[in-house]
Amino acid sequence: MENIVLGLLAHVDRGKTSLSEALLYESGRISEKGRVDHGDSVLDKDSLERKKGITIYAKSVYFTKENKRFFLLDTPGHQEFSSEMERCLAVIDYGILLIDGNDGIQKRELHLFERAREKGIPLFLVVNKMDLFQGDREALLREIQEAFSSDGIIDFSPYDFSDLAAFLKEEDFFQGVDSKENVALEKKEAIEQMAVPLEGCQDFLENLALLSEEGTAEYLENGRLPLGFLRENLQKRKLFPLFFTSALKQEGITQLFSWIFALCQMPTYSEELRGILYKISKSPEGRRIGRAKLLGGSLSLRQEWRPSEKALELHLEGVEEEAVESVEPGMLFTMPISENAGLGYFPEDDHREKEKEGYFPTLLSIEGEEILQYRKELEELQKEFPEWGISISLAEKQVTAQLSGNLQKELLTDLFAKRLGKKLHFSKPKLRYGESPRRGAYGRGAVLEPGHRISLLLRLIPVEGEFHREQQKAGEEKQQKNSKKRSIFSIEKMGELPEEWISRLETEWAEEHFSGPLLSGPYENYALEITNLSFSRGSAYYVDFQEAVYQAFSMAQATAGVRLLMPYFSYEISASQEKLGKILQEIERQKGKQEELLSEGESYQLLGKIPGASLSELQSFVQEEGESFSFSFSSYQEMEEEQALAVLEEHFGIPVEELSLTTAGKLYYGEELVSEAPLGQDGWEENASGGKPGDSSLKLNASASLQLKNQGERPEKKKKAGEETPSLEEELDAIFERTFGPLRNRGQEAIRTEQKLFLSKEKEARLEEARAQYAKKGKKNKRKKILVDGYNFLFAKEEWKALAQTDLMAGREQILPLLSEYAAYHDVDLYLIFDAYRVKSNPEKTLQPDPRMQVIFTKEGESADFALSRMANDFSQSGYPVVVVSSDQAVQIQGFSGKGAIVYSSKEFALQVEDMKKRISDSL
Q1: What is the DSSP string of 583-611?
Q2: Would you put residue 727 in left (φ > 0), alpha (ψ -120 to 50) or beta?
Q3: Which residues contact 433 (CB under 8 A, 6 or more apart)?
Q4: What is the tens place of the pLDDT at every residue in 54-102?
Q5: DSSP 8-class letter at 12
């Protein structure tokens, strides 16, 4: 069965949901069509969707015909929910772009057409609501062709595929003919015996043939076109089949359905397990549900789909949700997921790879030529090797790639030489530094238009880097029980805001990648506090709230100053014993932090972290020694002031002592710490002599420069003669004065107060950290914690396994006294953990046979692997020595990397238990 994902793309109110109902009805999947205005459509199940009559959440439903299964993916059309649509583009094989016949081509349609082009998605164009259209169809067709600048937009709507099947055959007409005369005769007879073409059919076929010279030659010679010719041109986006329809009245749907079935083909997938998680939502019961597409291999129930996480349930979305035992490549499906799972590809954590691409790009070039002239070939490489992170920037006229090592460079160089006969050059990887606020700062934001009025004050607060790592751990059960998940936002009078506004803002903010004002690096390590919120529900909407927050954030960001952050990378090195010493010395020389050393037969695995400034040198050294090296982005850490100033001097090309005289200095130190001299036309401060203290080599982030130069400036509104138009700053002051009383420059006062408070809090926090470290060092002889995967250990010995297969409870009872005796003998705390995640509504259950041992049955939805990982994290962070016992040793090593945990396989630990029994027996 071929699996094909068909995505519906359109602006709001183009009839997407009506079209989905019409296609489901045509396929026989439903016996009666629902309607948006009646609130009974199949895909718009959410109450708000039915109330508003629009699609808010992406959903899928499938239908089948013969050997093809189509997954119809309905995406949101409203611009406010465009991020949801963007995530769906990664899983769509073919798209249907809807156009309102009465409204014609709007800006949104052009945007969607361009996004599909960028993603390489073939498109069917559907001009809907033609039952209301009163104009000329031919004129409308020409308008669409001109708007999209494509001659490949051809009207298919007059013909069902069956009408033209005789003229669009995949197999050759003529086989077994051996003479030229017979060939010519056979062709003539075959053409004469064809069904008489429908009216206008000849023009239609000729228009298709003109898509390429090969097609023209084929049609002139044989009087037909291979169906593969149409499919190929559809895939290459040279052909855009167009249909005039009225989905509500089922007009034109039969033709559309027949051509979709004839032209769409399932992509080729690999045999290796691979997929993409494109959406995460919550079920009514509060479970996290992941929506995914399988891109390779197969996935069955209880199979591990990412490290330490198994597919506990698998469902296909449809008219009714359908549970399945397994999914195949190309299928859309849903499954419950843990808090640790995130959007992106699996089983590899590809969203982490995407972060790495942004931090360490390598510039590609061809000597003496413009590399962008090979854009087509580069785009093909993007699709062939997505892991290389090839990025094409037309605005900056450059191409970058994120290559993990010399072998990838060699392969890319070889491909360029073979395909283009060109030698590819690589620049030294350019490090991308992070940025964070130097001090607390305030910003104000407001939307002041008729029917849209909201104002607020935002405080930007620097936080320690650990804050974001705590956020990631906040989903763990312990923190769920004891505290709410920490948010980057703190909102005064939160109850006054609609709950969905807060949720959407937090979600969108987490997905947004904000750039710093100085070097355009990722902006990290901050929290936001919103106060002085003024609005009324009848005169403000979420988009107004969002815009006001963004305004205030930009204002605060421009005055808070900047601390530069060094990106740190986690490395993994496999080294032979004879090279181990040299590599460890090089790691120390490059100021890396070696965290874990694992023995793997005759080789060693080194795990640790390295500052980005030293990464390239360490990688080159290890690879020159003939050993393997891989890395991934880990975190940002604050740089020393001297090192940060050296980076700025190199980047801007100005001496450190002159930095404070420039706009860059304003951004780095914060505006109020620099003299308030006027800015020149390019953003530099002019000195007393009228010159500029620097040179043109300063490459300041343009948006940041404009923020400083134009803050408060807005286009003037119409004014009466002799009347001065107040600036936005004056308008804001007036609004705040009316709302909160006279202004006394409290922003500046608050900034100074906050700086003092922040410095005192920072000092106190450091003292607390020092006390905690001292207390941690002072705690001696903490009892070792041994975490045992119960069922893995139970099957470690054949006699235990045989008993367990006969009577599972008896098998468990057999190993309990052995492990209890082991815990008492070695004076350790032992935790025996059994999977119980498939037991419905099962809470975590703990038994304690004796003071040294606990038996834990995991709760519903939590595997033993996950429980082991969670408990190992908690114990390690509390300073306890930890031992993990699991047969899945590779997964456990990855899960506990850098946490100081010792890992044994179940068989190895069983031998230790047997050895303990022997020692006791010998001593008696």
Answers
A1: HHHHHHHTT-EEEEEEEETTEEEEEEEEE
A2: beta
A3: 519, 521, 564, 565, 566, 567, 639, 647
A4: 666 678 899 998 899 999 998 877 655 676 788 889 999 999 999 998 8
A5: T
Torsion-angle region of 858 (φ positive above 0: left; ψ -120 to 50: alpha; else: beta):
beta
- The rounded distance, in Å, linking the Cα atoms of 281 and 46 is 13
Q: What is the length of the chain?
A: 924
Residue 111's nearest CA partner among 129, 127, 99, 94 is: 99
What single-letter amino acid sits at 599?
Answer: S
pLDDT of residue 384: 55
Rounded Cα distance between 179 and 430, Å, is 66
The answer to whether residues 669 and 561 touch, using CB atoms and an 8 Å cutoff, is yes
What is the sign of the dihedral through the CA atoms of 514, 520, 526 and 528?
Answer: negative
> What angle separates helix 612-624 from helix 577-589, to the nearest 10 degrees?
160
What is the C-alpha to C-alpha distance for residues 780 and 678, in angstroms, rounded to an integer?
Answer: 62
C-alpha to C-alpha distance for 346 and 354, rounded to whole angstroms:
13
3-state secondary structure of 445: strand
Contact present, 39 and 235 (Cβ < 8 Å)? no
What's the sign of the alpha-carbon dihedral 375, 378, 380, 386? negative
Structure tokens that stand for 203 in this block: 């023009």
Residue 571 CA to residue 621 CA, distance in Å, equals 13
- Residue where the block lists tokens 């023009």: 203
Sign of the CA dihedral 874, 876, 881, 884? positive
Vertex 307: Cα angle to 316 and 886 (nearest 5): 125
Q: What is the DSSP string of 307-323?
A: TTEE----EE-SSS-EE
Interval 635-649: pLDDT, tens: 888 998 888 898 888
Nearest Cα to Cα of residue 905 among 888, 923, 924? 888
Three-state SS at 24: helix
Q: Are the beta carbons of 517 and 701 closer than 8 angstroms?
A: yes
How far CA 209 is from CA of 122, 138, 157, 164, in Å, comes to 19, 20, 18, 14
- CA-based max dimension of the chain: 110
Residue 199 class from Cβ within 10 Å (0-12 exposed, 13-18 middle, 19+ buried)? exposed
Determine which of 398-407, 505-514, 689-698, 750-759 has the lowest per-residue pLDDT on average.
689-698
The pTM score is 0.43
Of 3, 7, 63, the residue nearest 319 (C-alpha): 63
Torsion of CA 888, 892, 894, 899, to 10 degrees: -170
